[in-house]
Protein 1
Amino acid sequence: MWYEFLVFVLFCLAVIDLTVGVSNDAANFLNSAIGSKVAPFKTILIIASIGVLAGAVSSEGMMEVARKGVFVPSFFTFDNIMLVFVAVMLTDIILLDFFNRLGLPTSTTVSIVFELLGAGFIIGLLYSYQQNLDAEFSEFINFATAGKIISGIFLSILVAFSSGALVQFVTRLLLRLI
C-alpha cells in the first residue's frame, strides 16, 4: 500500500520539480537580457521561449547519463533507490527555487548530478553500515564516471567563459572602430 503512496508523492514532486526547473531555465535566459535591455521585452520572451523549448527537446539523454553514471543501482534495494530519488527531487525543488528567488543562475543538470551523487553516497553509506557489508563502498558509487561528468561540467564552464570573453572582446573592439 505504501508503494502507491510513494508513487503518488513522486508524481507530485515531479510536477513541482518540472515547474521549478522550467522556471529556472527561463530565469537563466531572461535575467541578463532584461537587465541589460538588449531588446524589447516581448522579443526577449520569444527568444527565451524558443531556448527553453530547444533545451527540453534536445536534453533527452542527459539525465540518463547522469543517472547511470553517478551510482550503481544494482547495489541498492528498491527502498533505497526510492529514498535516493525522493531526496534528489526535494533537494532539487528547494535548491532551484532558492536560486530563482534570489535571481541567481544555476544549472538544472549540475544540480541533478550533484544531488544524485550526494544522495547515492549517503544512502549507500547508510545501507552498507546497516547491512554490515564487506563490499567496498566504492562499488556503490561510480566515482570514475562521476568524475568524468564533473570534469566535463567544469570544462564546459571554462569553455563558455573563455569563448564569451573572446566574443565580447572582439565585439567591443569592432564597435570602437565604428
Protein 2
Amino acid sequence: MNKWLLTCVCCFCFAASAQNELKLPDLGNPSDQVLSPDQEMMYRKSVRQQMYQYNFMMTDPIIADYINHLGYRLVANSDNPEQDFEFHLIPADIINASAYPGGLIVIYAGLLLETDNESELAGVMSHEIAHVNQRHISRMMAKQRKSIAPLLLGMVAAVAAAQSSSSGDAPIAIAASMQALQAQMQINFTRYHEYEADRVGIQTLYKSGLNPEGMATFFAKLMKKNRVDPRYSLPEYLSTHPLSINRVTEARNRIKNYPTKESRESVLYPFIKERVRVLTATEFDHLSEYYQGNAKQDNLESAIYYGQALQLFKMNQHKQALASLDQIKAPLAAQHLVDMLRTEILSAQKPADTLAMSEGLLSKYPSSQKVKEAVAKLLIKQNSREALDLAIKSLRELILHDDDNPHYHDLLSIAYYNDLNPVESGLSLARKSHLLGLNYRAVRVLKNLKKEALDYYQLAEVDALIATWEPLITDDEHRVEQQTDRSGR
C-alpha cells in the first residue's frame, strides 16, 4: 500500500475515535433543502480553524495578499459581489482547488504552478466562486450531511494523528483527507452544476478584464497532459471536477459570444509563481537546474531571476542571491517584491542594519500590509528595543486592519515575548487561541496571567475576556485539553 493511500485509510480509521472528541456545527433538520447562511459560515469557520491549527495554510504575506486580491477582483465582477469569501493557498504539490461552504476557497500550490498565465489561474478560481454563488455546495451538503460530517471529522483526526506522531506527515494527512472530503462532496455535482459553473465563471473572467479563454485552455491542457490511461493516475482536479471534450468545446464556443478585448493580467503573476515554486519546494537541487535552464526567456526573465535569487537566499548563498536580484528589471508594480527580498538578504548579511533598512522600506511603502508583516518578521529576530518596538507597532497596525487573523496575533505574541513583556504576549496568545476555536486554552492562558503583577486596566481586560470566552468552552474541548495535560504533550 503506498504512502498516500495509507494516509487516506488511516484518516478514516481514526475518524471513529475522534467523533467523541471533536464536533462540527449541528446542521439541524435533515429535511432542510439548503444550508442557511449561518450554517455555511459555521462550516467555513470550522475548516479554516483546523487549517490554521495545523499550519496547513500559506501565511507568506506576499503570496497570501496576491491570492486574496485576485480572488476579490473576480468576486467584485461575479453575479453576487456581496457574498463574503476567503481565498487561501495550500503549500502542497497537488493539482487541485476546492470550494467549501460559506465561501472558503483553497488553491493548491501544485495547481498554481501548472498554470501558464493569470487568466488560467483565475479561470479555476472563478469556477469555484460560481459553485459558491450558485449555492451548489450548500444544496448538495444539505442532502448528504450525514456522510459529510464524519469526513470532516476524519480530516481533523488525520492531522491530529500526524502531528502527535512527529513524523512530519501532517501536511500529507490533511491533504489526503481534504481530497477525500472534496471527492465525496463532488459526487453529487450534476453535469448541469459543472456547466453552470463554467458558464458563470467565464462571464466573471470577462467582466474582470481577464482572458475568458483561461478556463478552457487550462482544462484542455490538463486533459491533454493526463490522457485517460490505466497506467497513469489523473490529477486530483480531474478526479473531482470531471471533464469531457464536449464540456471544453462548449466553453470555447461560449467564449466566442463575447466581444474581443484586451485582457489585463497582473505583472505580479510570474513573480508570485516563482515565489510559490521556491517556498513550497522540498529540496533545491532540481530548482538550480530549472533556473539555469530558464534564465534566458525574455518574457519571464525578471521573474526567473527573482525566483533564482530567492532560492539562493534560502540556500544561504547571499552574494549570489544579490547578483541575481541585480539582473532584474522589474515593472513598477512588482518593484516592492524585489525591494523586500533585497532587504531580507541584506538583513541576513548585516543584522545590525536591519532596523535602518526596515525603516527605509516602510517609508517607501507606508500603506502596504505585506511590507509591514515582512518587516515585522525581520525585526522580531533582533535583540534591540528599537527594532522590537517597530515590529510591535507594525503588527498592531495589521491587527487594526484585520483583527480576526490568528497569524498576526501569533507574531505579536512572539514580538512581546522577545521584548520581555509576558502580559501582552499572553494576551496576544490568548486571542490567537480564541480565534482558532481553542477557548479552553485561551482561558487557561488568561488565568495564568492573573498570577502576574497586572495593573488595573490589564486585570480588567483579562477578567472581561475570561467572562466572554469561558462560556464558549465545550465539554469535549475541556476533556481533550485535560487528557493532553495528563499525557504531558
